[in-house]
Amino acid sequence: MEEKVTTNSTIVTMVTIGMTESSSHVSFDVKKDISYSKSTAVTILSECLGDMKKATTQFKSAIKVDVGNLVKIHEAIQKTDENL
After folding, report:
1. CB-facing half-sphere around the CA of 32: CA atoms within 13 A
2. How far is it, in rounded angstroms, from Cα 65 to Cα 52?
3. pLDDT digit string, tens, across residues 72-81
4. Which residues, other chains included, contact 53 with Cβ-Cβ below 8 Å and sequence gap of 6+?
């Protein structure tokens, strides 16, 4: 006898909403360019700020992938259980 693996639609929905909402609160934008100096310190700071912006963008993209994967896993479990 094959056993079913259960999944819970309510929990999947809560997790996906929570992840999506959390990512909407993460942002990083530089309000004004730092252009008063060409010093090494300002250059490094500008690079760090650019890296932060890139990291937040990548984080948001990864959350979308994770949410999509969670939903696919949930749907696959449901379909498999229906076929047992």
Report:
1. 3
2. 20
3. 999 999 998 8
4. 28, 29, 30
Q: Report which residue type is found at 27.
A: S
Assigned token pair, 11: 């929990």
Distance separating alpha carbons of residues 14 and 25, to the nearest angstrom? 17
- The reported pTM is 0.76
Report d(CA 4, CA 66) in Å as an integer. Answer: 24
Rounded to whole angstroms, the Cα distance separating 28 from 13 reads 27
Can you give the pLDDT at residue 1?
59
Tokens 């999506």 correspond to: 20
